[in-house]
Amino acid sequence: MLPVAFALALAAAAPFSVAPLRAQESPPRPGFIPPADKDDNPVAPTPAPPRTPAATLDRLFERLAAAKSPEEAKGIANLIQRRWARSGSDTADLLMTRAQTALRDKQTELAIELLDRVISLEPDWAEAWNQRANALFIAGDPIRSMLDIGETLKREPRHYGAMIGLGSILRQQGDDRHAMVAYRRALAIYPQLEAIKSAVESLASEVDGRDA
After folding, report:
1. DSSP class of residue 88?
2. Model pLDDT, residue 42
3. Does residue 126 sit in helix, strand or coil?
4. Over the stretch 48-106, which tens digit does the pLDDT of each residue have?
5. Dmax of the chain from CA atoms?
6. In angstroms, rounded to a whole number, what is the distance separating the alpha carbons of residues 195 and 158?
7. Which residue has the higher pLDDT, 171 or 34?
């Protein structure tokens, strides 16, 4: 291909008109297909549709279930939790960050108040309910905590963290049978979670021993 500047100079210096030049052009070779307009070109690649956040999350859960080692599973779980942590609202995300800071500073009541506001802003955000369930449990209110776990699981039925929290509360209340059900649900989603494997094995022997 001619450089652009050279091609322009050549065109400016040419003394003949376009019509005679076309008359001298050679006929196309047999089988020649002239280039079509790019909009009509059937071989032009069609851009793939962007992957939605929900589709990305579904794929991560598939990878989590198929992970071959605890280390691989932990990396995938971290990606899932990062996506759970995004509400889509800058205000709600900021309030969530403040609530988590308050919990770390043992300001439980402030954390619950902030999470109340988050839920009022983003009532469909599963992680907001899960975080308030955690705060209520720390505050010594397991009943309300379980109610918020239920709200979490309505919005994200694969939330293994909420299932583990439910199992822990039930175990503290002496309901080992239902605690084991909750742990097994979590383990079905996150099979490489060693702590829950151990908890299920321990509870299974205790529950089976009582039933014997």
Report:
1. S
2. 52
3. helix
4. 555 687 889 999 999 999 999 999 999 999 999 999 999 999 999 999 999 999 999 99
5. 106
6. 18
7. 171
Q: How far is CA 5 from the centre of its chain?
A: 51
Question: With b meaning 16 or more CB within 10 Å and e meaning fewer, what string describes 26-63?
Answer: eeeeeeeeeeeeeeeeeeeeeeeeeeeeeeebeebbeb
For 183-211, write each residue's pLDDT tens digit.
Answer: 999 999 999 999 899 889 888 877 766 65
pLDDT in tens, 104-116: 999 999 999 999 9
Residue at 105: amino acid letter: D
Those residues with Cβ within 8 angstroms of residue 100's Cβ, 6 or more apart along the chain or in another chain: 111, 131
Place of tokens 């992970």: 67
Would you mind telling me the total number of residues written for the chain in this entry?
212
Q: What is the dihedral of CA 138, 101, 164, 185, to 10 degrees?
A: 140
DSSP classification of residue 31 = T
Rounded to 5 degrees, φ, ψ at 110 are -65, -40
